Amino acid sequence: MSRTFHLPGGSGVVVFSSAVLEYMYGYAQRSCFSREAGGQLFSSIIDRREVEVTHVSGPNKGDRRGRHKFDWDIPQANLDRETHFTEGRHVVGLWHTHPEAFPSPSGQDEKTTRQFLEAMEGTMKGFLQVIVGNKGTIPHVGVWVAQSGPRKSWIALEEVQIFGGS
User: Fold this and answer.
1) CB-based contacts of 87, cutoff 8 Å, min separation 6
2) What are the backbone dihedrals phi and psi of residue 79, each rounded to the nearest 5 degrees, phi first?
3) Which of 14, 35, 90, 140 could form a disulfide with 133 if both were Cys (CB 3.0 to 4.6 A apart)?
4) What is the residue-wise DSSP string for 22-39?
5) Contacts of 29 (CB under 8 A, 6+ apart)
6) Does the model's pTM come out above 0.85?
7) Strand pairing of 90-97 and 126-132?
8) Of all helices (H) and strands (E), which one includes residue 92?
9) Which 3 state secondary structure label does DSSP give 159?
10) What is the pLDDT of residues 6-25, one digit of tens each?
């Protein structure tokens, strides 16, 4: 089942495909021996009110991973972006895991997200950061967006609640 999050100011939504979610959930740090995992998020459509995240990369063999640490294999991350771009997809964010039930971004998480956004050299107005928690059959997923512009911001996105009818 996909999950949808509101973008700031009613500007649209971000939809994570079930395949992307299942992939990230598979790396949830459920034991004290689990190491952080992470990668990049990709979408083929980035200029509409609905951004659908359909592909994910990482973790990669060259990443340095620990219980509370994730350092990128930068050359491989660059290659992942180039490969997805040649297939019509653009990087729209990052994902990683935390060893906590309801994860929140660290200062380093915010810094890394901003560095990726700035590396886009103005081609994107925002960049996602997704953190996967470690509890529950379906782990909690926190989603934030770093926005560029005169008032740089860091905003937690709220999940769209879907209510069933009778």
Assistant:
1) none
2) -65, -40
3) 140
4) HHHHTT---STT----EE
5) 35, 36, 37, 67, 97, 98, 99, 134
6) yes
7) parallel
8) strand 90-97
9) strand
10) 998 888 999 999 999 999 99
